[in-house]
Amino acid sequence: MMVETSMLGRFHHQRLDFKRCVPAFITSHKTLFMILWIAAFLSVFIWQRNMVVGGILFFGRVAARPIPMMRPVAFNLTDFGGVGDGVTLNTEAFERAVSAISKFGNKGGGQLNVPPGRWLTAPFNLTSHITLFLAQDSVILAIDDEKYWPLMPPLPSYGYGRERPGPRYGSLIHGQNLKDVVITGHNGTINGQGQAWWKKFRQKRLNYTRGPLVQIMWSSDIVITNITLRDSPFWTLHPYDCKNITIKGVTILAPIIDAPNTDGIDPDSCEDMLIEDCYISVGDDAIAIKSGWDQYGIAYGRPSMNIMIRNLVVRSMVSAGISIGSEMSGGVSNITVENLRVWDSRRGVRIKTAPGRGGYVRQITYRNITFENVRVGIVMKTDYNEHPDDGYDPTALPDIRDISFTSIYGHGVRVPVRIHGSEEIPVRNVTFREMSVGLTYKKKHIFQCAFVHGRVIGTIFPSPCENLDRYNEQGQLVKHSMSQNVTDIDYDF
Ligand SMILES: *[C@@H]1O[C@H](CO)[C@@H](O)[C@H](O)[C@H]1NC(C)=O
Ligand SMILES: *[C@@H]1O[C@H](CO)[C@@H](O)[C@H](O)[C@H]1NC(C)=O
Ligand SMILES: *[C@@H]1O[C@H](CO)[C@@H](O)[C@H](O)[C@H]1NC(C)=O
Ligand SMILES: *[C@@H]1O[C@H](CO)[C@@H](O)[C@H](O)[C@H]1NC(C)=O
Ligand SMILES: *[C@@H]1O[C@H](CO)[C@@H](O)[C@H](O)[C@H]1NC(C)=O
Ligand SMILES: *[C@@H]1O[C@H](CO)[C@@H](O)[C@H](O)[C@H]1NC(C)=O
Ligand SMILES: *[C@@H]1O[C@H](CO)[C@@H](O)[C@H](O)[C@H]1NC(C)=O
Ligand SMILES: *[C@@H]1O[C@H](CO)[C@@H](O)[C@H](O)[C@H]1NC(C)=O
Ligand SMILES: *[C@@H]1O[C@H](CO)[C@@H](O)[C@H](O)[C@H]1NC(C)=O
Ligand SMILES: *[C@@H]1O[C@H](CO)[C@@H](O)[C@H](O)[C@H]1NC(C)=O
């Protein structure tokens, strides 16, 4: 039932014994020659089998990749009656396993290994000090009948389920008020089987907001690495009001069209977060940093801050690579996005907000960003008028400032820049430095601005809008803009 660490000790002893035996066994050159010959034959044999099946076969048995021990105790889902046939419901097996691990909280926690197989389940909750380890070829499959999905109260900073008033469906893998949670593996998969949900959503047959695939709330010290998340019913990975989160080496997939609201990662009122080395291709924003919605978000008042996003490749045909907002009422600050490639997408990086949001977006740094076949590269939109209800305060105006773009590249871009500030919500202190983006068409309206205050340092391509001040490479003012409020925005282009 349980693999104790002492097992590892025993294993080492066996290896030592084996080594001692070897010299005694090889007594003659003849034996040695024979062993080498057999070894050579076997390697060719194994190599050939590898070519055929792509796995490591040894005497006809698959030698599974050994699963590392990351906690003092480890359990196997099968110990709790799990059946990985894609048909049997494993909800109770997961619940029993989590409950067993919850007893080891003060002893360093426990690990739940999910072996290769297709493990169908309804939503279940995690516990603190757990490592959920998805072996290679293991798939946790979400049951797609909403009867099995519990309803939960709306998020306090949204006031509503995001798409329907009242409660909302919980997430497939859920956690709240936890500490020290790891979800990792040898690239096993959590599959939300979202197709049925997307269809019902389009047909308006759902009475409640759809559930995310993984949602961790009010928690800290979260690590999510080396797994694949796919086909979420709604947002894929939603850390809500959490602190100290690392997401690394994660692949997130959903169809690029007709998979509504399948955002990749939604850091929401989160602090101290690192997202790196991920590939995300989904039906909405690859990443959308948020912090609550209008009056509910203002009242909750928890910003998203200190977030580093780097070394990502992302694709979003219907939305954007990296978004901030539109729900940002608790504020968003100190975000760095670097070494990002956005390909075959509608928009590259975007900040969206509206009157009524309140809050702020500031200290945002974009560095070394490449757009490949993207309609609009850099987007800021200040009239994203989607409100929870009529109770929002139209005089709650967000403050958007201190945003810098350095080393922006690309090709096949239609509109490299569209910064649409307004009289109520001007965009302040934007800096461009080193930019060279290849265009689809060389026409007017390629660097679109309205109510933007800021500067360009050195020469950039395409040449900037007249709203921005010009500085030389040495940082000396060359030309002060007299027309920060001039509007040249063209959505038809
Ligand atoms: C889990 O149990 C199954 C069935 O007994 C076994 O095939 C598998 O190797 C075990 N996996 C681990 C990681 O212990
Ligand atoms: C998970 O825990 C939360 C909080 O206790 C609860 O509301 C929710 O129903 C639980 N989900 C499941 C699937 O048990
Ligand atoms: C993990 O699996 C996904 C989906 O099959 C694949 O696209 C990705 O390349 C894999 N990642 C690694 C590191 O093998
Ligand atoms: C939604 O509500 C209607 C009316 O109350 C009900 O007939 C229907 O079964 C509900 N649908 C779902 C998916 O819960
Ligand atoms: C953040 O979480 C990681 C993983 O649990 C942990 O090792 C680290 O100590 C935490 N950092 C802080 C500052 O608490
Ligand atoms: C993730 O996978 C990489 C490559 O296989 C490995 O080097 C790394 O140790 C793994 N990281 C974690 C945290 O599991
Ligand atoms: C800004 O965020 C980074 C993480 O990306 C962090 O290391 C740094 O300390 C933060 N800066 C401030 C002033 O908090
Ligand atoms: C810029 O980002 C790309 C990935 O998009 C990376 O290959 C390259 O090394 C980065 N350049 C620098 C100078 O970090
Ligand atoms: C403008 O923004 C930059 C960061 O992009 C910051 O370093 C600078 O202090 C800001 N300037 C003012 C006047 O606030
Ligand atoms: C530009 O608009 C801002 C408000 O967004 C205003 O404060 C400022 O005076 C305007 N500048 C000019 C030159 O009209």
From TrEMBL:
<keyword id="KW-1133">Transmembrane helix</keyword>
<dbReference type="InterPro" id="IPR000743">
    <property type="entry name" value="Glyco_hydro_28"/>
</dbReference>
<keyword id="KW-0472">Membrane</keyword>
<dbReference type="InterPro" id="IPR006626">
    <property type="entry name" value="PbH1"/>
</dbReference>
<keyword id="KW-0964">Secreted</keyword>
<dbReference type="Pfam" id="PF00295">
    <property type="entry name" value="Glyco_hydro_28"/>
</dbReference>
<keyword id="KW-0134">Cell wall</keyword>
<feature type="transmembrane region" description="Helical">
    <location>
        <begin position="21"/>
        <end position="40"/>
    </location>
</feature>
<dbReference type="InterPro" id="IPR012334">
    <property type="entry name" value="Pectin_lyas_fold"/>
</dbReference>
<dbReference type="InterPro" id="IPR011050">
    <property type="entry name" value="Pectin_lyase_fold/virulence"/>
</dbReference>
<dbReference type="GO" id="GO:0004650">
    <property type="term" value="F:polygalacturonase activity"/>
</dbReference>
<dbReference type="GO" id="GO:0005975">
    <property type="term" value="P:carbohydrate metabolic process"/>
</dbReference>
<keyword id="KW-0326">Glycosidase</keyword>
<keyword id="KW-0812">Transmembrane</keyword>
<protein>
    <recommendedName>
        <fullName>Polygalacturonase</fullName>
    </recommendedName>
</protein>
<comment type="similarity">
    <text>Belongs to the glycosyl hydrolase 28 family.</text>
</comment>
<dbReference type="InterPro" id="IPR051801">
    <property type="entry name" value="GH28_Enzymes"/>
</dbReference>
<keyword id="KW-0378">Hydrolase</keyword>
